[in-house]
UniProtKB/TrEMBL annotation:
InterPro entries: DHC, Dynein_heavy_tail. Residues 166-641 form the Dynein heavy chain tail domain. This is Dynein heavy chain tail domain-containing protein. GO terms for molecular function: dynein intermediate chain binding; dynein light intermediate chain binding. It holds the Pfam family DHC_N1. GO terms for biological process: microtubule-based movement. It comes from the Eukaryota. GO terms for cellular component: axonemal dynein complex.
Amino acid sequence: KPLFLSRAVLTGLADATWTEEHDGILKRFAQDPSEPILTIFIDPCLGLKIDLGMPVQTQNQIVYFIRHAPVPITPENFEATVQFGTVRGSYIPALLRLLSGVFAPQIFTNTTWPESIRNNFASHLHRFLACLTDTRYKLEGHTVLYIPAEAMNMKPEVVVKDKELVQRLETSMIHWTRQIKEVLSAQETVETGENLGPSEEIEVWRNRCMDLSGISKQLVKQGVKHIESILHLAKSSYLAPFMKLAQQIQDGSRQAQSNLTFLSILKEPYQELAYMRPRDISSKLPNLISLIRIIWVNSPHYNTRERLTSLFRKMSNEIIRLCCHAISLDRIFEGYVTSSKEDLQGCISCCHAWKDHYLRAVQMHTQFSTRGWVLDQTSIFAQVDAFVQRCKDLIEVCDCQYHFARWEDGKQGPLPCFFGAQGPQITRNLLEIEDIFHRNLHMLRAVRGGILDVKNTSWHEDYNRFRAGVKDLEVMTQNLITSAFELVRDVEHGVLLLDTFHRLATREAIKRTYDKKAVDLYMLFNSELALVNRELNKKWPYLEPYMAQYSGQAHWVRILRRRIDRVMNCLSSAHFLPHIGTGEESVHAYQQMVQAIDELVRKTFQDWTSMLDKDCIRRLDTPLLRISQEKAGMLDVNFDKYKTQPVPLLVLSLGPFASPKSLTYISWFPSPFFCLSLSYT
């Protein structure tokens, strides 16, 4: 333990608490030959930690002990068996710092080793330092050339005489050449990236400008120039390719700076889009297209067909990305149908507006510019068209939730109530359809991670499987509608059922069954009209004994009209009924029948008025009762026996003290239009 702790150099170790757990880990490492490494570090949360291996999380400082041989560690073999040290910061930068600052200077200045061994070891060390330097700075996105310090203090004329040293310098230049080629090829690969947006394009050119500018500055450093002069004197064959690549770096740096300058005019407009909803983006698109056209016309290096097509394609990617941010898949699959459909429709409108503005810009450019618009429109809008179709697929998913599961906006609508003997069975069938649909929806939701990715071709298989399940549900729903209408015997009941299934009528397959049942409903109405017409065609309708001839006939006709009016009012208030030819014919037949009924009532009234006496009001002056001339003290009825033949119906007041001379009668004349109340004194 003292041997380990005396070699542990760690900030905060003196104040840390050493526990029995730490002793156990240290003892296990010392006694178990299969444990290769022990690390000691201060964790910000847990304090002093000892691990048999590297820590999982990055630590600022680490003390390491490495076992060289698979033997137990004792005080006697500690120095020969254990290698130890301290790493500060990231591992690779710490290793480079240790090699460059401690080991390399001692090795390269050592003259006691045999020449062959020193040359061989120095060659391998240079190669390792070159790779380590490249890796260390690539972590930060930079390219740094490793400059060997071995020949920096020697004159070129002297170095040329050392063939081994010249070969080591050539090895370094070969590595520089490989680094520059990788930078140039990597830049071309990034430039053609398919999933990047305009902001990323600007950032790519900024990084490229920084990288190429950094390499350009390194190429004019004294160390690089010194090695170039040495290899020039040595007539190295590796110098010419390197100088050619160095010139490409210089030209590429100037081009990158120019392209970055022109692309920077797009930065602020694109930043504004990041905070806008898809439906509001349309107003900003013409300005963006105009700015891209400015780059096309004025940029000396970014005006190629490939780069401009790529820029417009990146614009399409940016619009798709903004639309994806506005779409919540969780809300879609949790039943927020109304709001989700609004978001999806807004995204579709945004994509269509982008395409329309682009085509309008093409037309204007072709009309007023001598330079043709030679961009590849198909590749620009291929992903946009695919995304629009994906949004339509999700709208179909929302519609299916509304149709088959009663979801509206996060809540399920009430379950319809079906009356009659088959009502409970219809309800159970409807709930079974909902349960099957929810299972299909859950299977589709399980792959939602790639739904909005237009390059995810597996979505088509999953969605087609979902659509096949929906078609089966449509067939089940058609059968349910058919069975529900089997016991419909009147129009009112049929209208209620059609109202219940109206939300499903927007689906083409179900709409055919729905329209067929609507036709059946109008056929029921036609049957009702036929029954009423049969009643009207009777020559002598049945009247109750207390009903007069003309008033009873008019009352009977009006009852028939109320019978068909009630059904017609029910149909008229059913706004959800489809407009079909059978319905128009039924309405026309109803209107004709109403006209016939009105005409019959009018004719009945005219027949009654034609048989009335012209001076019938005079008859009211005749008393209804008179003193009998045949029987003293008795009263006789004084009605006209040949004309009106009134029937006295009710004596309203006849008290015990009433005189026969003081009677009140109500007489109902055989007329539907008036009733008389007369008093006789």
